[in-house]
């Protein structure tokens, strides 16, 4: 056997044995989920920021207990991203938004009521006013947009979550704000 | 000598440990045989029961595959809740990066390709995203349908610049090995090309139009016309929105991934559809033939799967690597042993060659896991049905075994069409299931005809509601009972009204009784939508009589005057 082949055989055998042992010991590790979807942490941060922003808005902040009552319906969540947002998740997000708004200590001082549309009551735990007894004066809507870039190496989604509070009596936009977040994932050769 | 023995020992231990790993060819066979057989003999409930535990195993290398299988079987059957749960579970992994941890990736390279977490070939991934889109189309959720279909439009790779030329894997692998020998990287240098998945464009565009975003839909419809001029009439019809009902038809048995060549290291997809003309879909509504634009299949997977651009990089890399290793190691060792026949070192080299050969044989085998539930062809058929319920017969010119009539389909409106996913195949040569020509049982209030509920000897299996009670009372059935009382009675019998895990996240929640209809050995009384196998089974096949479980029902059954009437004679509604 020539020295080159001998050396090659030894090295190859040692490497193969080491790799095979290491690989077989770890070969059963759990498949991993690592994607660019919006997670629950994002939704928590987003709803908190939106509540703060809405309550700080002039039109809302200047209201008093004697202001004309506003009945705000959380009526629409639109998904314009390239990711699936199941109905349950959409309305979970709206439920949290509604809960955070309702918790706000200044809500009563501003004569604001948040309601859920009748057809969504199954998806959101609804307390307080039955929706059918209150006629909405305003609508709060959320729209999720995303810019997606994909390559062999990975995927990036830049999400823009835009919120609007619309006065239903004259279609006047009372408040709008948005929240941006970027998610990226790296792909390996097996993806 | 001792060092060599130790090395051999370590290798043997490693190989034994490998055998213990879950994802072996043996497990592959164990998991897939039963559900696939059940699926292709139209026993969808059995297929789902057989898959549910495996689909819930998030440690399995087949977690994506099993969830896609379960999702597709549930969608065909008519349990859209289970379909959504399973398909979304698969979706989470499909869009993830690094699903295979580095250790698993190394193992799949050096031990057996099947150890890696299955994510499917590009054509299977595209179809998986299409199926998720189809589910949301059925649910009338155009936004999520568009999002899912958009994911199917990923870029493809043109290996070796073959473009639209179909070429087998051996040729691709040899070409790759030659290119690499010249110093290039065949796989990495593959040209990236824009998606050619017509079905994805068509569904994404249709969903966008239904989202009232025609400007976003237009370029995708144009892309369909550019890729497939023969689909222009269909694209036109979908773009105009000139339909109130949309049929998404999966027809036939998809391609099978088969290993071939030395040590079964190469793969091919059979049958090769290029020599077998695909069927054409003809439709008749309520007995009369109707002209439509969806007669040509949008996708023929028997043909699509023949093109390298629809294969994964890893499949090609694996084939190339195995061919290369065989040449390299085989040649070097043989030459060396041949020149040192009488020497002890040469004997060791011989043993090493034999072991290397065995190891290579074991590791060379290609991974043949694939999504068996895919169809051969997908048809998209827009129809204008108008009001009422309709019987829609789909007939396949060239493949009559898949012909069937789907009953009681309801139309939507041009702005919100009703979408149906119809799974049609020839049941392993036995044809579609035998469904009666007329309705035997009702499962919705508007199709209720006469008589008491099925559990009291009648023909109605509609879940309780105020609308149902009004229909009952109008026909003199259960005059002293309201919806709440009937619901209580069903609950006494142990029935639930929604299929699914019933709030349990463990094995008990996967018990088949929570998914099967009460007429099929389960505890669920629910109404699957028309256009599904379960709807057809429940309404158009005979079910045995019901044995009361609760004292309350037994007591009612002993008092014939308690609003229970003799069941009406079954007949055409």
Folded structure, characterized:
- The complex is a heterodimer of chains A (191) and B (573).
- Chain A is built from four helices and five strands.
- Chain A is α/β, with parallel strands linked by helices and 191 residues long.
- Chain A has a single domain, classed as Rossmann fold.
- In chain A, helix 2 packs across helix 4 (87-103).
- Chain A is elongated, with a radius of gyration of 26 Å.
- Chain B has three domains: 1-119, no CATH class; 155-194 and 243-433, no CATH class; 445-557, no CATH class.
- Chain B has 19 helices and twelve strands.
- Chain B has helices at 2-20, 25-39, 44-56, 63-77, 80-94, 102-110, 122-138, 142-151, 169-181, 198-210, 214-227, 232-240, 301-304, 313-338, 344-364, 466-474, 483-492, 533-540, 551-557; strands at residues 156-158, 191-193, 245-251, 256-260, 266-270, 280-285, 288-290, 299-300, 377-383, 389-397, 404-410, 418-424.
- Chain B starts with a helix and ends in a 16-residue tail after the last helix.
- The chains are: A alpha/beta (191), B alpha+beta (573).
Task: Summarize, please.
Chain A is α/β, with parallel strands linked by helices.
Q: Tally the helices of chain A.
A: 4
Q: What is the CATH superfamily of chain A?
A: ABC-type transport auxiliary lipoprotein component
Shape of chain B: globular
Query: Beta fraction of the residues of chain A?
Result: 25-35%
Report the structural category of chain A. alpha/beta
CATH architecture of chain A: 3-Layer(aba) Sandwich
Number of helices of chain B: 19
Number of strands of chain A: 5
Radius of gyration of chain B (Å):
28 Å
Q: Strand share of the residues of chain B?
A: 5-15%
The main sheet of chain A comes to: 5 strands, mixed
Named CATH topology of chain A: Rossmann fold
Our count of domains of chain A comes out at 1
Largest interface: A-B, 51 and 66 residues
Distance linking N and C termini of chain A: 42 Å
CATH class of chain A: Alpha Beta
Strand order of the largest sheet of chain A: 2-1-3-4-5
How many separate domains of chain B?
3
Low-confidence parts of chain B:
11-31, 327-335, 565-573
């Amino acid at each position: 056997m020539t020295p080159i082949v001998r050396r090659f055989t030894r090295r190859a055998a040692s490497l193969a044995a080491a790799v095979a042992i290491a690989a077989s010991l770890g070969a059963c590790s759990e498949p991993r989920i690592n994607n660019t979807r919006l997670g629950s942490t994002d939704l928590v941060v987003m709803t908190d920021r939106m509540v703060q922003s809405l309550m700080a808005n002039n039109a809302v902040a200047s209201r008093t207990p004697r202001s004309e009552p506003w009945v705000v319906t959380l009526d629409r969540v639109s998904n314009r991203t390239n990711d699936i947002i199941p109905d349950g998740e959409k309305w979970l997000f709206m439920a949290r938004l509604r809960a955070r708004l309702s918790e706000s200590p200044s809500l009563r001082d501003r004569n604001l009521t948040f309601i859920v549309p009748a057809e969504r009551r199954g998806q959101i735990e609804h307390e307080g006013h039955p929706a059918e007894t209150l006629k909405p004066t305003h609508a709060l809507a959320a729209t999720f947009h995303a810019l997606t870039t994909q390559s062999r190496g990975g995927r990036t989604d830049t999400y823009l979550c835009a919120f609007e509070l619309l006065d239903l009596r004259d279609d006047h936009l009372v408040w709008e704000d948005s929240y941006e977040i970027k998610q990226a994932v790296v792909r390996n050769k097996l993806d | 000598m001792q060092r060599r023995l130790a090395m051999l020992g370590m290798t043997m231990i490693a190989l034994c440990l490998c055998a213990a790993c879950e994802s072996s060819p043996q497990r592959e066979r164990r998991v897939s045989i039963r559900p696939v057989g059940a699926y292709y003999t139209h026993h969808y409930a059995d297929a789902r029961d057989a898959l549910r535990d495996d689909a819930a195993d998030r440690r399995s290398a087949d977690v994506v595959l099993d969830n896609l299988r379960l999702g597709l079987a549930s969608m065909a059957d008519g349990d859209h809740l289970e379909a959504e749960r399973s398909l979304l579970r698969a979706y989470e992994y499909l869009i993830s990066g690094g699903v295979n941890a580095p250790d698993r990736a190394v193992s799949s390279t050096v031990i057996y390709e099947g150890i890696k977490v299955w994510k499917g070939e590009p054509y299977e991934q595209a179809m998986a995203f299409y199926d998720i889109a189809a589910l949301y189309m059925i649910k009338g959720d155009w936004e999520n349908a568009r999002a899912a279909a958009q994911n199917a439009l990923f870029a493809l790779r043109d290996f070796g610049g073959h473009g639209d030329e179909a070429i087998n894997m051996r040729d691709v692998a040899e070409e790759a090995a030659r290119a690499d020998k010249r110093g290039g990287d065949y796989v990495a240098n593959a040209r990236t090309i824009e998606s050619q998945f017509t079905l994805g464009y068509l569904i994404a565009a249709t969903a966008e139009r239904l989202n009232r975003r025609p400007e976003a839909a237009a370029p995708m419809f144009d892309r369909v016309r550019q890729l497939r001029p023969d689909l222009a009439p269909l694209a036109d019809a979908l773009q105009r929105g000139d339909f109130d009902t949309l049929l998404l038809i999966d027809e036939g048995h998809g391609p099978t991934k088969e290993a071939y060549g030395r040590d079964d290291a190469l793969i091919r997809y059979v049958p090769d559809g290029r020599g077998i003309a695909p069927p054409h879909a003809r439709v008749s509504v309520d007995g009369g033939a109707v002209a439509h634009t969806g007669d040509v299949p949008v996708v023929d997977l028997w043909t699509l799967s023949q093109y390298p651009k629809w294969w994964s990089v890893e499949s090609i890399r694996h084939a190339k690597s195995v061919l290369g290793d065989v040449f390299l190691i085989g040649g070097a060792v043989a030459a060396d042993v041949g020149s040192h026949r009488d020497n002890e070192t040469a004997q060791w080299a011989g043993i090493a060659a034999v072991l290397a050969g065995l190891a290579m044989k074991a590791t060379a085998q290609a991974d043949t896991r694939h999504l068996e539930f895919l169809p051969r062809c997908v048809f998209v058929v827009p129809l204008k049905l108008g009001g009422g319920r309709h019987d829609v017969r789909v007939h396949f010119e060239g493949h009559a075994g898949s012909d069937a009539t789907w009953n009681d389909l309801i139309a939507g409106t041009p702005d919100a069409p009703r979408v149906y996913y119809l799974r049609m195949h020839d049941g392993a040569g036995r044809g579609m299931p035998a469904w009666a020509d007329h309705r035997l049982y009702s499962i919705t209030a508007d199709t209720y005809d006469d008589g008491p509920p099925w559990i009291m000897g009648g023909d109605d299996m509609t879940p309780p509601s105020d609308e149902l009670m009004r229909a009952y009372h109008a026909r003199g059935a259960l005059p002293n009972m309201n919806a709440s009382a009937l619901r209580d009675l069903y609950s006494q019998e142990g029935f639930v009204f929604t299929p699914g895990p019933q709030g349990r996240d463990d094995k008990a929640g996967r018990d088949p009784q929570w998914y099967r209809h009460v007429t099929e050995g389960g505890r669920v009384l629910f109404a699957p939508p028309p256009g599904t196998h379960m709807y057809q089974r429940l309404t158009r096949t005979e079910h045995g009589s019901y044995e009361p479980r609760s004292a309350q029902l037994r007591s009612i059954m002993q008092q014939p005057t308690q609003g229970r009437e003799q069941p009406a004679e079954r007949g055409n509604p």
